[in-house]
Specification:
Serine Threonine Protein Phosphatase 5, Tetratricopeptide repeat, disordered C terminus, 2 domains, disordered N terminus, mainly alpha, 212 residues
């Protein structure tokens, strides 16, 4: 189980209702996906939601729920893509920005750990002990990897800031998000000295200090 910062606080309760969806096939797929999500069967939920998205990619609930399922299946790059789409469909849902930060942060963590989604897919196959060890071995983290991770941390920071910009959050939610914000800033402060000098000068999204 990943020891990622946000994984415990992923928003199971925030999965949206599908009652407003008119297409019967899409609604059936989404309802079935919610059943699988509640049981922790993320692969089955992903299959239904991907099929739903093939029918109609414009429904916020489908995109959001698929993002949540991808996060819990530790497919963070896929989650980032679909949650960004969800945010573009309905930018007025705060939970989508929190979940997007989850995906962005954990994607950065995987990069710095030398882990890729291809590695995870290989590890799930039935392999010999030697092959499994080789498939799971972390790859070398390159300077380009560190640049990519830094940008993902910055994106996660911006997503949390967007989440905190909503007025109707509970006080507990605000406090939890502020803790996450500080944690991301600390990660960036530690990573910044490891970045290539050219990137420090040219990075279009400056890495903030811990103080802001």
């Amino acid at each position: 189980m990943k020891n990622a910062l946000f994984i415990v606080t992923i928003l199971f309760a925030a999965i949206m209702s599908t009652a407003c969806i008119n297409n019967f096939a899409v609604q059936e797929l989404n309802n079935k996906a919610q059943e699988y999500l509640s049981k922790g069967d993320y692969d089955a939920a992903i299959g239904r939601l991907e099929a739903s998205l093939d029918i109609d990619p414009t429904i916020f609930e489908t995109n959001y729920n698929l993002g949540v399922a991808y996060i819990n299946a530790e497919k963070y790059d896929d989650a980032v893509e679909v949650l960004e789409n969800a945010a573009s469909i309905n930018p007025n849902q705060p939970d989508v920005y929190y979940s997007l930060a989850v995906a962005q942060y954990n994607s950065a963590e995987d990069i710095l750990a030398g882990k890729t989604e291809d590695d995870e897919d290989k590890a799930e196959k039935v392999l010999s002990e030697a092959e499994t060890t080789n498939a799971a071995a972390p790859k070398e983290v390159t300077p380009d990897d560190k640049i990519k991770a830094a940008k993902l941390y910055v994106d996660a920071l911006r997503s949390i800031e967007k989440y905190l910009s909503f007025d109707d959050l509970s006080q507990d939610s605000k406090v939890a998000a502020q803790v996450q914000l500080s944690s991301i800033q600390e990660k960036l402060v530690k990573l910044k000295p490891q970045l290539p000098q050219a990137d420090k000068k040219q990075n279009p999204a400056p890495i903030p200090s811990k103080e802001g």
